[in-house]
Amino acid sequence: MNTWLVPLPVVIPLVAAGLTLALGGRSRLQGIISAIAITLVVLASGALMYLAHHDGPQVVNVGEWSAPVGISLIADRLSALMLLISAIVLLCVLLYSLAQGLADGNEGAPVAIYHPTYLVLAAGVANAFLTGDLFNLYVGFEILLGASFVLLTLGGTGERIRAGSIYVVVSLLSSVLFLIAIGLVYAATGTLNMAQLAERLGNIDPGMALVLQVMLLLGFLIKAAVFPLSAWLPDSYPTAPAPVTAVFAGLLTKVGVYAILRTQTLMFPEGRLDDVLLVASIVTMLVGIVGAVAQDDLKRLLSFTLVSHIGYMIFGVALANKAGLAAAIFYVAHHITVQTALFLVSGLIERRGGTTSLENLGSLARLAPALGVLFFIPAMNLAGIPPMSGFLGKVGLLQAGAELGTPLAYVGVAAGLLTSLLTLYAIVKAWNKAFWQEAPEPLPETSIPRSMFGPAAALAAVGLAFAVVGGPLSTYTASAATDLQSRTPYVSAVLTNGDRGDGTSDEAADDPTQDPSETESATDDATDGGDDG
Amino acid sequence: MLQLLLAHIAAALVAPALMRLMGRRGFLVLAAAPAATAIWALVQTPAVLAGDGPMVSLDWMPAIGMNLDFRLDVLSWFMTVIVGGVGTFVLFYCSWYFATGAKYLGRFAAVFVGFAGAMLGLVTTDNTLVLYVFWELTTVFSYLLVGHYFDRKGARRAAMQAIIVTTFGGLAMLGGIVILGQIDGGSYSLRELVANPIDSSGPLLPVALICLLVGALSKSALVPFHFWLPGAMAAPTPVSAYLHAAAMVKAGVYLVARLAPGYAEVPAWRYTVLVSAGVTMILGGYRALRQHDLKLVLAFGTVSQLGFLILLVGQPDQGVALAGLALVGAHAMFKAALFLTVGVVDAATGTRDLRELSGLHRTLRWAFIPALLATASMVGIPPAAGYVGKEAVLASLRTDDVASTVTLVIVVVGSILTFAYGARFLWGAFGSKKGVEDRPVDREAAGLFVSPNVLAVLGVLAGVFPLMGETLLLPYAETYPTGEPGHLALWAGWGLPVLLTILIIGAGTGLFLVRERVERLQGRAPKLPDMDQVYRSMMRRLDRVAVVITSRTQRGSLPLYLAVILTVMVISATTAMAVGGVTVASWRWWDTPAQAVVGVVVVIGAVLTARARRRLKSAILAGITGYGVVMLFAIHGAPDLALTQALVETVFIVIFVLVLRRLPAYYSNRPLAADRWWRIVLAVAVALTVMALALVAPGYRVDEPIWVLFPEEAYVFGYGKNVVNVTLVDIRAWDTMGEISVLLAAATGVASLIFLRTRSGSVLRARDADRSSVWAEDVPDPLAPLRAAGGAPSGGRGRQWLSGGETLAPQRRSVILEVTTRLVFHTMLLYSLFLLFSGHNAPGGGFAAGIVAGVGLVIRYLAGGRFELGEAAPVLPGALLGTGLFLSAGGGAIPLLFGGTMLQSVVIEFSAGIFGDIKIVSTLLFDIGVFLVVVGLVLDVLRTLGAEVDRQGEAAGTSAPEIAFDSPRDTPNDIRPAAEVGASRSEGGSS
């Protein structure tokens, strides 16, 4: 068994976060530690993906506490893929921000705080993907939200504080709703282990299960930014520093999508809210993209496309057939990389042009042709231009919609196509203004450090690489979707012994020879020992 | 085939470097790619005609039915020859067309060659999804090429229009492709789709076909999508010749020809083609008669011709289709040749306006000859290829059914218009005009004339040998479902076709002769609805609607966003409860009456908090609900939780007070009264909903809750009697580890906001401070006269109650507080250590212990100011926080090194002489980490919200607070007693 790998994507960043904070002030060392930590996470995630694909879900009962008493961590195909993609994205963004820090002589941001917080964010994202416990999922959300509050307000400008206050308060409200839902779930089922919930939710009254489903979905839908719960996103993301926005846009909403995907398939397989989700996804696509069309700031425009394309993923989840789930997973993987790449590039544009306002930008095709290529490729990818990843994901979704064949599904297909067109429209408008049109005022005479190009280019290239590895990847997502639909791989990997996991705590409890001696004296003595240290 | 595609990709990738190296002669090298394509296709001719052309099949994404299947049948072969051949000649032409030092040639060449590759893929693939891939690629490349002169506004606009219109069609086509793929009996293989046409009675098949046709029509610029093509003439002329005459716009024709054998008889298909193509043919010809820009004459002519071609190949009839295919070839040659001659004229004279050109037939003879030949082919003068094709059309169209008759009429009328604008083009470009001086002509390099001449001559030669065309194209035409196989011939004997040809030539000549009157007439005729205008007003409307919708959904108002979320919550939860039919099973008012009492207090506290107008008041009232929760925990027998919660509440109040010092005393910007009402309604609704949920849920439990397993396993496996502590540091240590990282993040966040861009600095020590400086500002010092000048004698170590006390302003010092602090501080630290180590079996644990230690620090700070805090904890909070997390997470990972599980606990027992047997559970390390993080958090908060805010405040005097979210401006209904400004600060300082 190689289950020792499973907790690493969370533990490594946390240890590194502690280390970098304790080393505050030695920014070079901090950067090296962060880069090593995230690289290790990439490797561990890759290994987990391989294992999950070939040997089935990798499960750890943390501390040998046999599920459902302890917390179990599960890396199945879906979580492992999410882990790997997000780790790669985190690494690219980290390298980008390191390059930015070097270029700016570390004047640009309080680096002493940036690194530990960024690592905590990484741990939170990984935890949300790995956990098999509903409350621990909440903890994962808290970790990444806590870190995101800090990152969003870095520098503390008035604009960021204002945007941050919207983000923080809405996030807290969504956490409270999620917490209420968790309380209700425990009250009605007596467990929070997700594998056990998969079994127990089927036993309780279907009406109550529906209530629980609605309540759980609410929190996730806010986090995923699904209309009408999405308005917070475009107001808060664009103001943060470029690498922060990039990683938020890439990862945080996808954690919400992941949670929806996981809970809906595992815990509520009857899909009684599928039609509601379908409608929500269609409206999200359209309202989001219409918002993008109306923007004249590149970062805001991208934030709106983010909302809109969340609709695509929810559409796939709501279709609930194998093709839909597979396409949704594929699309999530695609969207994480492309959205991050675009925000990184818009950071570069801001550096070169001094602004992201499309009214003030211009002439970039003439002044910075390399930047043009770097923007054009992911932008076209986002618009779903073949043969890049966005197109591959979109085709899968359309096929799934046609396969389901209900009128509502066809409305979704049409909405998806329209969204694609309007995305292209918004992107082309932005390109025409920022790159082709002459700038109204001459742009500042600066250049972009080459080292910042690298990470952005790498992410943009991932979109192209998806086309090359599209075959194996789509096979992988299809198997992941099959796992999600059949549920047994997950449930039986966690509850290996009927109703318990493979931790040893239950065996110890059943074993009559294990009778702990009196421990009263030990505590007193321990106090003395602690004083010495 | 794949090798050829890869060759195009490679050529496109090296193009920028090549062009930099070789200048415009690089085009000659790049021409090798399409030339290789054409030659390869020609070599394959016998095999293709025999029906076993090359095939390649490679799995790409089998999961979505998208595989790299390529096949060279007759139609693909034909298109490949056109695409490769014309591409070669146009690239050849390019190497003389562009000026030596022209800019952006590298990018142009790369995109151009990439386009040629995409076109090759488009016409050879058998997979509809792959077809779409290449289809969209040609669209994007076309966008970049149309926008080549991107500094011109017209070019940018035309490029955008072209990509939006053709992508609109493309996406519709994708929808059609997907439906055809998923429908019963459907397929993603073109061959399958045509060989076994889908036989479906529902609406899906017609919808899918119309979707596909929308794609084809938009790509080939047919009505109502025709308007993008004239705009696209903003591109450099070689682009117009290749993309917008010979290759890309033929993609639509190709798709129609490809599917027509299977679906041309479906009514939806038939009438869409007939109406759109017919109208296009007439409209294009009509509009061409009025253009003055030679390129626009040709562009509208192309629109007309494309309508003509689709009208033919979209019919189910074999003879018509054969004629159509012949015309596809003829059109590629003559239209490319014509565009290239226009390019020559443009280059030589500097204008394309036919009103300014005169005498060119003499001065630009080598452009005139190909133009003459190509025009002859276009208008159908024997023996050119165009004539052969047109004759075959007239011969094959029957007059016995309505559709064919209508087609025939359209063809004849369209041909008359074609003749007229063809003649007008030739006259306009090369004729000598009365009243116009001969246009001076620059000498152009001979190379520029090669391509148009070759293409034009080939166009004539193809007509001279009609049987060759027939042999090559008949195999595909025969796959069409109805009619007789047609023939291509120069002379098919007397009959209706000959009469019609005479009619066309006669009427066309007549129309040309009265061209000026026609122009005037058109100018006066009632304006047809111009699709270009329609498109623009649609896009404008789209932009406007987008702004309206977005301004509705995106108000930027946090209260509104929260209200939306809560409303959705209330509606969806109540709906779910109603639909699910859930009810409350059984309930009671309370377990013990004490609960009720606490409950009432909590409710009152909450209501008062919401009503409070003063910030400090609301903070303290919020504390009441917190302490109420402490009581509830205590009543339920959870002393750990009660202890922790109580400590947390205490620290919270201190933090609130510290923060509120720098905020306005009163909430400002109170909402309007009406707002208050709906807020109350919403709040009550939310409360009732949550209450109902809480009442309902426990009644539905059927399984035994997992907590029953906890006590025994906690003791046997976790070695602890205190279940709560074992749960925190062992059973759910993973949660705790996460939560302390949240604390860490929160602490760093506070630091980042307060210290902003300055590095978080060093520890403040008393020896560095000015004496009597802290908290000195704007508080009266009535006792000053009582103190001796020079202050109290300064004492050394041990002569002060607090070592930082000297730094305080004298009026801020309190002997009682200093003495008490001195006495309790170390006791508190010891107590916290006791809590830390006793936690496993008795109430306590790292969290509570950390807070106790933190409260100790709070007291030191309050008693002695910020330098005293530095004396009490001469470390940076980051070090504590970091070490704490490092210990917890890292310590938890140690078992992994020994083959154990993350956070696995072991018990170490040993005998320690007189201390007896010691038993240490390894989770202690974890708990120490928690302890350090909590202490670090409190220290961090004190350092930032306390010490640093003090410093900033003293530095800024009594200036306005920096961290205020709401505007400090007074609002009319905000009654704010002036005397109380700053009240909160003095409370903060002296409490």
Strand content of chain A: under 5%
Assembly classification: heterodimer
Radius of gyration of chain B: 43 Å
The interface involving the most residues is between:
A-B, 170 and 157 residues
**Relative helix content of chain A:** over 70%
Tell me the count of domains of chain A.
1
How confident overall, as mean pLDDT of chain A? 89
Number of strands of chain A: 2
Number of strands of chain B: 4
Q: Span between N and C termini of chain A?
A: 38 Å
The number of helices of chain A is 22
List low-confidence stretches of chain B: 959-991
Largest sheet of chain A: 2 strands, antiparallel
Number of contiguous helices of chain B: 38
- What is the typical, i.e. mean, pLDDT of chain B? 86
- Main β-sheet description of chain B: 2 strands, antiparallel
Low-pLDDT residue intervals, each spanning 5 or more residues of chain A = 515-533
Q: Helical residue percent of chain B?
A: 55-70%
The global form of chain A is globular
Task: Output the strand order for the largest sheet of chain B.
Answer: 1-2
Spatial strand sequence of the major β-sheet of chain A: 1-2
